[in-house]
Amino acid sequence: MHGFLRFFVYLHLLLLPFSSMAEDSPKIVFRHQINQDDILKKQKEYRNALERLDAARLAFARQWNAANRSGKKGIREKARQELFTALLHDIFPAWYGTTWDFNGITETPGHGKIACGYFVTTCLRDAGVRLQRIKLAQQASQRIIETLAPADSKKILYGKPISEVAEYIQSQGTGIYIVGLDTHTGFVVNDGDSLAFIHSSYYRPPFSVTAEPIEGQNPLADSKYRVFGKILDDIMIEKWITEGQYILKPR
Q1: Tens digit of pLDDT for each residue in 186-199?
Q2: Tens-place pLDDT, residues 212-228
Q3: For the chain, which residues make up each domain, given as ranges?
Q4: 228: which strand partners?
């Protein structure tokens, strides 16, 4: 990336006020809210968006290395907001319409096919989270959650109506969750106003990546077993800033 762009991103981040994700939180872009031309634009700009995000991460890393404990707290909150926004507005929407396949392993949104586990690990890898994309994608969803989410955020809801699931997610505040189901995995997002299930869907045509309300005809609503783990926690954000690695946790 050109040095000028890196400098511009760094200057922009310095001018941002410290804030929590609850303030001015970005909103979910549901699949039905975005047309195909805009999805294609997101796909065309995908690599540039990832480069901008990495430039922001490098700027945070420079600030982080120079900061004291109090300063790092503010940097962490700004970095969390940056990553949350990039996932909701640049990364997830670029994948909408990418074909689902049980064996799909594509790394390029809009081209090839992608399985549900690979969708989760590829999105996070592209966002700059250092993880074992292939190895982690091949695990049961609970192991993905145990590797990437703090233990105290893990929540199992078995046999509950989807309305109770929605109440639980709303009670936990704004954020992104990895969810494991009977035979599926994906993300659940709470943007402070709406809840979305974002996943590579095998449920009905066109069998592709989508973002839909959590209530309705989808695997999240119909599954008996549901396990949640909230990501973008302090540990993940610090690892993101400092390029720390996630290694698959042993059984």
Answers
A1: 999 999 999 999 99
A2: 999 999 999 999 999 99
A3: 3-242
A4: 155, 179
